[in-house]
Amino acid sequence: MISLKSNPLTFFNPEPTNDTLGAAFFDTGISCGFPAPTEDFGEQQHLSLDTELVKNRETTFYARVSGQSMIGAGLDDNDLLVIDRSIEPANNKIAVCFLDGEFTVKRLRVDVDGIWLKPENPNYPIIHVTEENDFVIWGIVTNVIKKV
After folding, report:
1. Measuring CA to CA, which of 66, 114, 121, 122 is 20 to 30 A from 74?
2. Is 55 a catalytic residue?
3. pLDDT, tens digit (0-9, with 9 covering 90-100), for 28-40
4. What are the structural domains of the chain?
């Protein structure tokens, strides 16, 4: 099971900063195939990852992944998740949930028969959520930030 290492009171919420420029950004289209010559990098621009990744600052938080149950969805141990609490939970979305005293991130399966939390690793079981569970959906994963 993947759990989030943070307590709900210590999640990082991005605060507004005076640095509205962000990091340097070169919009040249870096080739993933054969290298392509470029005449020059042109004018330097700035890019803020908050602008790119956060749609609603008041309801978005970051949390780090711990575990392997979502590797099939591209969520690996120590990845940083961008989670938005304003997005409506829906079938097939990846959600951060609080289940029986623990945080977990799983793919939601919702149908007329109930709610399931589906891992993206066959070594982990699907969890059927029942009325007996203490269950809250904290937010929907919108992006993942990886270190290479």
Report:
1. 114
2. no
3. 555 566 665 555 5
4. 3-14+55-145 (2.10.109.10)
